Amino acid sequence: MKKIVFMGTPEFSVPILEALIEQENLEIVAVITQPDRKVGRKQLVTAPPVKELALAHELLVLQPEKLSGSEEMNKILELKPDLLITAAYGQYVPTKLLTTPKFKAINVHASLLPKYRGAAPIHYAVLKGDEKTGITIMYMEKEMDAGNIISQREIEISEADDTGTLFEKLSLLGRDLLLDTLPDILSGQNESIVQDESKVTYSPMISKAEEQIDWTKSAKEIFNQVRALRPAPGAYTLLNGERFKIWDAKVKDEMSESKAGMVVLVDKEKLLVAAGDGQLLSLLSVQPAGKRSLTIEEYLAGAEMKKGDLFGE
């Protein structure tokens, strides 16, 4: 039986850990996850999803604030794992941990490397309007997401997808690809290929500035931004100087010469806004400052919105 140390934190990691627990030839000797954090408006201290699953199976859980040089790291080394597996852990893993296990360390990464190395590959796939994405199983090394590729599997991205739906799809895809890939890794029969450095792109964490809509961009770009920031943190614009979130929208096959961000048409059921390329964007779900999310019909029933009003100023 091979000894595994698993490292992961969010909901994305849960199906992957669950599948590993069910394997009769594997023993999960420890689960490493981020510390409990305050979340939500009430700032309640909440355990990561991976911790909840691990405790339900009575597994050893370690939550170092910083792994390098910690007692938890020494504990992992004492366990002498055969393989270290990470999936959205969210913290730097010291080189010593990557090289000590017999079969080294592998990562379940949510992109088709070398495209989108970094912390937000799913967000960027949607933001850039990609037609496909996927999972890469790779060896880990000191440089982030730069290790040799062991296996990959891709899926299509539809216009109905957002970051939330892709998280769910890629989590299951990662689980299945990992289970298919592990036997060859643990038998020492797998192959790997070096990443093509000329094709490397990066996907850093989404910044606060990237949450704000720039109406001079095309309607398609704004549509992709809305999808990429859903279900959180949400894309926003300004209306009368206050934040106004847009949760859902649709690109229309209609053009206008109006200024970018200007309301072109408004009635009881429809709100069309001009984008920078002249194409119209139909707002479908919005959230005014201090209010809950509303369908456009709900919002227009109580809003004083008129043609010529301007978003973004």
Task: Write a brief caption for the model.
The protein has 313 residues and is of the alpha/beta class. The chain has 8 helices and 15 strands. The strands form 3 sheets. Strands 5-2-1-6-7-8-9 form a 7-stranded mixed sheet, with helices on both faces. Strands 10, 11, 12, 13, 14 and 15 form a 6-stranded antiparallel sheet that branches.
What share of residues is helical? 25-40%
Distance between the termini: 62 Å
Structural class by secondary-structure content = alpha/beta
Globular, elongated, flat, extended or rod-shaped: what is the shape?
Answer: elongated
- Low-confidence stretches are none
Count of extended strands: 15
Largest sheet: 7 strands, mixed
Order of helices and strands: EHEEEHEHEHEHEEHHEEEEEEH
